[in-house]
Specification:
The protein has about 500 residues and is α/β, with parallel strands linked by helices. It has 15 helices and 14 strands. A hairpin with a 4-residue loop joins strand 1 and strand 2 (about 15-20). The structure holds adenosine monophosphate (AMP) and zinc ion (ZN).
Amino acid sequence: MSTGSRPFRLRNTLTGRVEPFSPARPREVRMYTCGLTVYARGHIGNFRTFVAQDVLRRFLRFKGYRVVQAMNFTDVDDKTIRGANEAGLPLRQYTDRFIGQFFDDADALGIERAEHNPRATDPRYIKAMAALVERLLEKGIAYRADGSVYFRVAAFPAYGRLSGAGASDRIAGARVDSDEYDKEHAHDFALWKAAKPDEPSWPASFGRGRPGWHLECSAMGLELLGSDFDLHCGGVDLVFPHHENEIAQSEAATGKPFVRHWFHCEHLLVEGRKMSKSLGNQFTVRDLLDEGFSAAAMRHLLAGVHYRQQLNFTRAGLRQAQVAIGRVNAFLARSDRAGGGAEAGDGTAEDAEVAGALDRFEAALDDDLNTSRALAEVFFALKQGNRALHQQGAAGGTGAAPWAAAIRRMNEVIGSFELGKETSDRAVGGERDEQEAPSGLAPELLSRIEERAEARRRRDFARADAIRDELAQEGILLEDGPRGTTWRRP
Ligand code: AMP
Ligand code: ZN
């Protein structure tokens, strides 16, 4: 398709402007996305940012770039150490569980796997972190105090460039860690924290200890992507101090630019309120699946709001998303059944219309990844496609197929339509296509699974759980997934 000379414009937090995205290498994008801190299952807010990053990644691929993405796991920091100690588990064993759950949820949401998923505690990266600290010590930009190593912010004049004018206030008011009382200045930050008896630690030439969070991402990014890589992404809460500190320590150590373009996603609120443990509104993807919502609806809601706007996540919004997806999926299935070549290009007026919709879709995303405007083109194509199907019924034409193909092309970026279809051959309930019949199960058992799906739709979770337990007794295990419920025998 034609991308013309129109550049992809994306806001860069570093300049505060929406500007042409220009990777260092012609057809390749090197991208680092700060990943989950694995002390709990990721919540729906985390996944707002991860879905936004996935849409960005998919759009770059849509435009023909090869993407090399590194998404880390923060598997050593104050929270993971505290959690592991409380659970009485070795750190690795404790964090493994949440990493597994992250992949379950990310896969359900159709988030493409990154090329690299580094864990901070991997010996390769611990070594890279220690090497960075050594370089900073040699250059006199880092200093040792009481077994820890700190970054001397005053030695890096460009400090504050990313987070802007507000940074100096925030630095002045920043909380000083109680274990960092030996710093020269309150705003200096720990690169390496001295070993403590109840914490994991690693040997290093400058003393046994563990890396600070900021150092972890700098080292993993530089190790896997090199200097001057193209994109660094995260939620807005990471701009300061995390990303500001990453820039400082990386550029001070290498003497080269660290990252070309910084992408930050606004936060998600739940029913208009910030998520918090005390409000009990910190939902996970799993919680919402258990309530009977599909992962496709979650993705649709998360992807459909522009990444620079706060997203108010509501159950009403999820239900609307579910309906919208159902309409599109039903059209795609009907169009497939009606047949007709998906290839546009014999020069009809309709082909030009389809090409126009695809171009407007791409133009919306070229404009700072405007997903809500892009989605409007999906629904325009749906309207045209349904109209063509209708006419097709009467006149026997094949006009719906190019619209279906256009929607599928758009869905390479949006990702919420037909999500989970390929794994749904044993789906019963949820967004099951009417055509799909689960096989190998007695009709009596099937009707009880249906009855449970119905109970879930009524939100009668007690009844649903009771049916699940009865079936388990009979050797049928139910699993609720992105496309509804699947069964298996243990
Ligand atoms: P964390 O596990 O806290 O390191 O966060 C993982 C990612 O989720 C980071 O990019 C955060 O900025 C992002 N994040 C955390 N909370 C939210 C939220 N409420 N809305 C959107 N993104 C969030
Ligand atoms: Zn990070």
